[in-house]
């Protein structure tokens, strides 16, 4: 099995990709532990602050020591330099807010999953032509599940995941899965700034378990 297929399967199997960033290294690692305890085996860390790369490097070290089956992805990749830095740091997959051709070329040459953010059929076609197989619908709250329903038959060979605006409720999650997505990305609705500030890892864990159970029940119905 290829690395791209391994990551794709992991995200689809859990149906959820949690994403977060925290400047504090200890908080970053403790959140990762909480997500792991909840059953998460693929997570996205967003490269949105000056400590992102050093924190991510520590996440890789922790994963290698304590959670070998965890796949660590990096998000908000906007240029080739970032992609190269995080590839060197050991990222398993890469996510962008938009499609970056040189990033796609670099990562696919390394046989690593690249999931760019797209919000038009033209962007999706461009990404697919470059070899991308996993599309991030972004921003999900602006597009809505109706957009996914309208385009899914046009792109039968692609996997889709909305990020932005997906709530932790069954109604919100179910609307997207019914529309045809393979997973949902969740950031502040799951790992909120308030929970991070309070270092409330127990609630992050329990909320993640709850969302995983909702997704499992949706898939089974």
From TrEMBL:
Keywords: Carbohydrate metabolism, Lyase. Pfam families: Aldolase. Pathway: Carbohydrate acid metabolism. The keyword Ion transport does not apply. Belongs to the KHG/KDPG aldolase family. Homotrimer. This is Bifunctional 4-hydroxy-2-oxoglutarate aldolase/2-dehydro-3-deoxy-phosphogluconate aldolase.
